[in-house]
Amino acid sequence: MSYFSDIYKGIKTLLTGMSVTGKYFVTSKKGAITQQYPDNRETLKMFDRFRGEVIMPHNENNEHRCTGCQKCEIACPNGTIEIIWDRGIDENTGKKKKKIDKFVYHLSMCTMCGLCIDVCPTDAIKWGQNFENSVYDRTALTRVLNEPGSKLQAGVED
Amino acid sequence: METVTLNSNFKSEEYFINMGPQHPATHGVLRLLLTIDGEIIKKVEPDLGYIHRSIEKMCERDSYQQIVHLTDRMDYLSANINNEAVCLTVENALQLEIPERVKVIRTIIGELTRISSHCLWWGVMGMDVGALTTYFYGFRDRELLNDIFEETCGARLTMNYNVPGGLMFDIHPNFVKRVKEFIAHFKTKLPEYDRLLTDNVIFQKRTKGVGILSKEDAISYGASGPVGRASGYSCDVRKHHPYSALDKVTFKEALRTEGDTYARYLVRIQEMWESLSIVEQLIDNIPEGEYRVPTKAVIKLPKGEYFQKVETARGELGVYIISTGLKSPYRLKFRSPGFSNLSLLNHIAVGGKIGDLVATMATLDLVIPDIDR
Amino acid sequence: MNIALSITKTIHDWLYSIMPETAAMYAEMVLIALVYLGIFAVAGLFLVLLERRVAAWFQLRIGPNRVGFQGLLQTMADAIKLLSKELTGTDKADKFLYNLAPYFVIISSLMALSVFPFTQEFQAFDINIGIFFLIAVSSIGVIGILLGGWSSNNKFAMIGAMRSGVQTISYELSIGLSLLTMVLITGSLQLSEIVEVQKSGWLIVQGHIPAIIAFMIYMIAGTAETNRAPFDMVEAESELGAGFHTEYSGMKFAYFFLAEFINMFIIAAIATTVFFGAWLSPFGITESIPVLGVFWFLLKALILVFLMMWFRWTFPRLRVDQLLTLEWKYLLPLNLANIVIMALLVWHNLTISF
Fold first, then answer.
1. What is the number of other CB atoms lying within 10 angstroms of the CB of residue C133?
2. Tell me, what's the pLDDT at B7?
3. What is the DSSP code string of A68-135?
4. Is A54 left (phi over 0), alpha (psi -120 to 50) or beta?
5. What phi, psi does B139 have (nearest 5°)?
6. Which chains touch A (3 or more CB pairs under 8 A)?
7. How confident is the model at residue B253 (pLDDT cuts 50, 70, 90)?
8. Residues of chain A predicted below pLDDT 50
9. Cα of B193 to nearest chain A Cα, Å
């Protein structure tokens, strides 16, 4: 008689499975877990810690906090960060001092490991939450993070 | 035309089929060279190397902090546990005293990673045997975990949250609340997994008695993780060599003796329950304290050899470091679970149908970058 | 020629009034063919869209909703895309058979469509061996699948084709026998007469228990016949990639794809006709408006189509030997026993009729 009880049990488990999917079908109007991505750009907000790209915040006087110590460049496993630096004359003390000329960031090589930001002693670089990084030309992914004409914020080195 | 003998044991009824490197069931770029007689599999030859990135060689160049982020890219589904393995090895070598808070957070995140990995596996398992809907139900629950990881670690898949000496930053204030929400949610969804797939008569017919691996074979092939435990081989590193905060929690090792595909399936389902209970035990009492012990900017391990193993979602991951006292290891070897688990595929898949091979491979839960490294 | 062409009598009479008889007959045939081709295209595209939306709702997704209102033009856009695609093929394919295969599949499903009584008047071809014709024609399609898999010179495609052969030959039996069970009540193979009998109760009510068993067997076998999950051995994508149509692209692929959906509709339509009273409304509520018969027919067919979709998006796939076990060890013996029971019921007048 196990022949018929097998059939009965089989059909029962199949119906149980159908009840699970059926339940989701009935409540599908409010149950969708997918997002309508390009439409929800306004409301889509990434978490504060989200690692999208490395950015260098500037204050209102166009000043950054990077001293050009190159710790990030050493910490980076992939050669993503290149700092082109120069020695300039400090206006206040008159001494020769290291200052950054260009902070080059190759987004195309970055693995978002966060070691550069972890190691930065002056919090000069931070994570940006922008994730829409698709471009037609890969040279657009090589970015200079310090803005033209920007200089070091006073008091960072103390 | 001259006939070329491909294989001396090749019979005239048999033929080769190239499964992969682009095949939906190999979950990545694994190539299987199948010798088939009609539908019956006579031989399976895995062919590796399509995603080899020489991670072990790169480790010989990198500093110990940098090595951690490379392990994300091995078994990307248990990235946090891989990171933890390297960090533990380095910390043991340096004999650093790690704060309790770090240990507990590492364990919680590790177990959540395990659940997330098994969620994905469950979805893909269903898909491999033909039930496409399971994929989305598995991903629905995995998304919640990914959100938790994203909020605390900053990334959804390759987190790089552990550093030698602790954690990169403290947990997010919302972490505890969100994890509790997830536990409550997932406890209602896990029985649904059973009703949809586990109990299904077709699924049971497809998996019971398929791909049987005996305990002796499991040990001699070096199977670990759910694959070994489904054959009755008690090999849970968390139980036998507890690391981090795992000695403070009570949990059952998921063991079964059948050794078939269905047993491997059930072991993973049970592991999700156990991981949930571990997280539940720890989440309410995360001790206060530092989240990181300061280390030198350039870590140099003392001369010697160091080994540490952890239990990833796939099995036993061993990290073996030979240091000559420099800033990079002289040699670093990962003992990845996927490689050993793949090696027994030929043993258990021969004699089955093509459908059996796919179901068996799904329960081995192979992650190809873990095998190739 | 005395084929009972009875598509809306007014058009029929009008055509015969303005033309000589032979010309009118040919004009009518062409007209009917065009109408059915239209139905075929629209139904196919609509069913593809329906499948995608229904699948999305089962899977917590939204589904295609960008092209046109709620994605109504999505499949149209897909069809245009497939039309404009290059027709690729393998070098060592058997070119003649390779090109022939899609037409086999699509023509067989188109032929089956012609006998359904959508409503009392709207039936292109009321042949007196209707059910036999349906069973015979709907199994021709497998030749196309076999040819396609064989001729494209691809091992995956060939495994798929061979599986399809095995599967269709086996499940033909169940389809035929379960329909024969119902023919025992009607005593006729002609579809219009089968509908006539159901005016005193749908056959699934008239035949009660054996009819319900026959219906269940028919739905299982029908799902297998159309090569859909859980019986999609032919294109089991996690095993064979794309199965028999691996090497097809563009419109040739679209023919296979459309034929699958039309076949699904045909299976549902046969079940509607034989078990659920075709265009008859429940309890005769709209008997006074015969045009609504089309609505009832489509409604019943679509509910059955939805049931098949529900199967597809819930169940895992069977293995090829289990597929045969299910047919030969479960469905066929049950079916044979069921026929005997039904014969006894009919003999002793135990059927329920109002």
1. 19
2. 54
3. ---HHHHH-SS--EEEEEEEEE-TTT--EEEEEEEEEEEGGG-----HHHHH-TT---EEE-------
4. beta
5. -70, -30
6. B, C
7. confident
8. none
9. 9
Task: Tell me the pTM.
Answer: 0.87
Q: Is B8 inside a domain boundary?
A: no
A44 is a domain residue: no
CATH number at residue A86: 3.30.70.3270
CA distance C349 to C343: 10
| d(CA C62, nearest CA chain A) in Å | 6
Same domain, A137 and A60: yes
- How many domains are there within chain B? 1
Q: Which residues of C touch B (CB under 8 A)?
A: 55, 58-61, 155-156, 159, 229-230, 232, 236-241, 313-322
Q: Given A20, A24, A34, which is nearest C62 (Cβ)?
A: A34
Cβ–Cβ gap C239/B25 under 8 Å: yes
- Structural domains counted in chain A: 2
Per-residue pLDDT tens over the stretch B257-311: 888 889 999 999 999 999 999 998 888 888 888 888 888 888 888 888 899 889 8
Of A16, A112, A114, the CB nearest to B168: A114
Tokens found for residue C120: 């009392």
Q: How confident is the model at residue B35 (pLDDT cuts 50, 70, 90)?
A: confident
Q: How far apart are CA C142 and CA C133, in angstroms?
A: 16
Asked whether residue A57 falls in the same domain as residue A29, the answer is no
What domain range includes position B44? 15-372
Q: Which chains are adjacent to chain C, needing at least 3 Cβ pairs under 8 Å? A: A, B
With contact defined as beta carbons under 8 Å apart, do B230 and B267 qualify? yes
Range B4-15 average pLDDT: 62
Q: Domain check: are A111 and A73 in the same one?
A: yes
Q: Residue C80: what residue type?
A: I
Query: How many interface pairs between A and B have CB atoms less than 8 angstroms apart?
Result: 75
Average pLDDT estimate for C261-267: 87
Chain A residues bordering chain B (beta-carbon distance below 8 Å): 9-10, 13-14, 16-17, 19-21, 33, 46-47, 49-51, 71, 75, 77, 111-115, 118-119, 127
- Same-domain status, A29 and A61: no
Contact at CB, A111 and B151, closer than 8 angstroms? no
CA nearest to A18 within chain C: C314
Q: What pLDDT score does C3 carry?
A: 42
**Which CATH number covers residue B342?**
1.10.645.10
Q: Which residues of chain A does C311 touch, with a Cβ-Cβ cutoff of 8 Å?
A: 18
For chain C, the structural domain boundaries read 86-347
Task: Supply the range of the domain harboring residue A101.
Answer: 53-151
pLDDT of residue C324: 87
ipTM, two decimals: 0.83
Residues of B in contact with A14 (CB under 8 A): 200-202
C156: exposed, middle or buried (Cβ count in 10 Å: 0-12, 13-18, 19+): buried
Question: Which residue on chain C is closest to B135 by alpha carbon?
Answer: C59
Partner residue facing B202 (CB), from C156, C239, C315: C315
**What is the DSSP secondary structure assignment for residue C328, as one 8-state letter?**
I
**Confidence grade of residue B9 (pLDDT, cut at 50, 70, 90):** low
